[in-house]
Amino acid sequence: MTGWLPAVCAVALILTVLGLHGVSARDTAVFGLYLMLGVVLPGTLMIRALWSGRRTLAEELALGAALGYAVEAVAYIAARAAGAPLLVAVWPVAVYGAFLAVPRLRRHWRGGPRLRTPVWWSWSVVLVVAFMVVRPMVIFFDKYDITHPEIWAGGADLSFHLALIGELRHHVPPTVPAVSGEPLLYHWFVYAHLAATSWVTGVEPAVLLFRLAMLPMLTGFLILVGMTGRRVTGSWAGGVLSVVGTVFLKAPNLYEGENWVLTYGGVQDITWSSPTQTYGALLFAPVVLLVLELLQRRRHDTGRWVLIGVFLLAVTGAKAIYLPLLGAGLAMVIAVELVRRRRISWPASILLGGVGACLLFAQAVLFGGANQGMTLDPLALFRMGWMRLSGLGSQIVPSQASVLGLTLLYVLGWTVAWSGISGLLSRPKLLLRPAVLLMLGIGGAGLGVAFLFGHPGFSQLFFLMGAVPYVVIIAVYGLIVLLRWSRVPSRATVLAAAAGAVLALLFPAICGVALPLGPDRPDSVLYPTQIAFVIAAGLMIIALFVTVGVQRAWALTIVVFMAMSLPGNVRDRIVYQRKTSRTPPVSQDALTVLRWLRDHSHPDELIATTVHCRWWRRDPCDTLHFWVTAFSERRVLVEGWGYTPTNLRNWTPGRSLQLPFWDRRRFEANKKAFYRSSAGAVRRLRERYGVDWLFVDERQPRRGGAVGDFAELRFRAGDYSVYSVPDGGAAGARSPEGR
């Protein structure tokens, strides 16, 4: 019971938070039941059959969850394409049947020999996982309160995700629902998972997205990071520190004031707001574990190769960033092996070939050759970051000195956070281990993309976020090696870590850097008090080297640096997020009308609407508007086009993402039907574009006749109405439903 107690306590805490934030017991129970029986358990049975070895039960379940998610997505795509989405339940039933009927498979119900998990390890990991899950839960749940449905739509990204879940609930292959006919050139497997879960459980997609679905993904991901850390470092302590570092380790805030530029790039930045990143992180973690085993073993059984093939295909459609990162890591392993031993690492070469094949498939089929706005634009992150920090936007182009200064601060911050890597220099041969080379290659690729590429939504940083856990593992490995080599007493290590924590709390106020950002901002590089602080810290380090020797001073300095990076983002990540105002909500009336439309229309029917701009950003128009598709689960002729492949293809660095809609003929036809209504204008939407419904914000002014003179009012709530477009002729005199 002792081993289960930490997990039981964590589950009780999470269930309490869910209940306090509007999730019904029915939804929680049904979701948990489906997750265990439809995803985790069948996946775990397959892991046991295909991947032998001693593991903890938590690791086995996490691997099973990842494999279950991967198979479920493919099964749902096939079931949805066949027009019977509930057939997704066939695959777990088939797994159970096979493992009951085949004698050789029955033994896997019990599982193999297990690693004994130290109690302190279980409690440590559970506490970190609970913090990682519960802290963002409280902040995120408060911001998006599902007990008040008008807040569900949230920001542009979350309504975009919700719209894609609705699209995958009804269509395979999917398209961009906010612009009819626009291809969906995106990594969309997570939406297939959420759509499948919604079909089987009956839980609303919004409840899954805003509350339930991220919890098991985050938990499984952190468990697998911990087990990867344990294998690489060779110690349970290394596994715990890997989890701690993944969650907490961030570049210290080296700029005075609240900002995101210098500390952005950690795992906490994407846990709830990016389901694709979280889903992809979980599916990529077993790939790293499998690659490590394949690189270190001389004999390779078929099961591992089958599993890595399945996971690579799943990662291909889960998140586009992970295959390039893995390819860079494998390329580094091959290159070093070739130079060092003058031979080719065949496992790494075969894996790199598989990664290349998956990348070609992704670019040719899933992404259609589109770059989704990613362009070669060195230091774009810091140029755009300077504009945000200055508050001047694109009004003034920053000087090269300002951009380079911000770049150097960013490099300095992450150098401090990952300083543990230098500990491997105490035993240089360890740098040539395949595991170390793989993860250094992953980290180098993540940083390289962040520095060399640009994107209007800062998506180049997702590469860095994907690489962070594996760089952290190497930093922890280097720290452990250095502490063992230098033989630092445990008491001195604890004191050094405490000193680092104290410095971290002082950093935002004392050691902030003032960049020359604008005419009203200071032009000095450092304030006098900051200079004094840096000098004092330098003298302390020098004194440390003199008094305890180079080896111990080096080790203790690294301990201080890494400890200083753990809570270094407290203000930015807790205080600032709590101060962030809620997004202006979608009204309850609009949601009532859209839910009515979802219940009274066919998924293949098309909507035209008057709303294209997020209403608090009309001049200029912010076209990241998706809540009509998100809550109606229907395709729209033209709603918001900011994230479409065509709009991103037309975007160039230095321009705003808010470009005019490219098909002026369609846009004008849509506009005319609402603002200069006539029988011909409404009929044209029907005959030329296949529009069946009109969703209208009645507050918007019109120059011509009312839409109701030429279309049939079917439902109205407050200022929002929905009309059906007749097959021909004028609308009949039918009494509207609603209030």
Automatic annotation (TrEMBL):
Q: Keywords assigned by UniProt?
A: Membrane, Transmembrane, Transmembrane helix
Record bears the keyword Transmembrane: yes
Residue span of the signal peptide, if any? none
Is the Transmembrane keyword given for this protein? yes
Annotated membrane-spanning segments are: 29-49, 84-102, 123-141, 208-229, 236-255, 275-295, 307-334, 346-367, 403-425, 437-455, 461-482, 494-515, 527-546, 553-570
By what name is this protein known? Uncharacterized protein
Origin species, per record, is Planomonospora parontospora subsp. parontospora
